[in-house]
Automatic annotation (TrEMBL):
<feature type="transmembrane region" description="Helical">
    <location>
        <begin position="20"/>
        <end position="42"/>
    </location>
</feature>
<keyword id="KW-0472">Membrane</keyword>
<keyword id="KW-1133">Transmembrane helix</keyword>
<keyword id="KW-0812">Transmembrane</keyword>
<feature type="transmembrane region" description="Helical">
    <location>
        <begin position="48"/>
        <end position="67"/>
    </location>
</feature>
<protein>
    <submittedName>
        <fullName>Uncharacterized protein</fullName>
    </submittedName>
</protein>
Length: 78
């Protein structure tokens, strides 16, 4: 009925290591700055809601540029 092409089952070690490093850097870039802003605002002012709103805002602004950030990190790792 359908003849699907076989998928590539072997991935080189170099590609796998690069994938892990780029993914780790992206996770740190997406999570650590908003978390730091949230905790900084919460600990300095005691405003939980304000810290959460600004932290989420920064998180989604960073996510808007995720494609560009990923390309830059991938080029750097190459």
């Amino acid at each position: 009925m359908f003849n699907f092409p076989k998928k590539k089952t072997q991935v080189s070690t170099e590609v796998l290591i690069r994938f892990i490093w780029v993914s780790s850097f992206l996770a740190m870039i997406f999570a650590l700055p908003p978390l730091g802003i949230f905790l900084g605002i919460y600990l300095l002012t005691g405003e939980l809601i304000l810290g959460a709103i600004i932290g989420f805002g920064v998180h989604f602004v960073i996510l808007a540029f995720s494609g560009r950030i990923s390309k830059i990190i991938t080029q750097f790792m190459s």
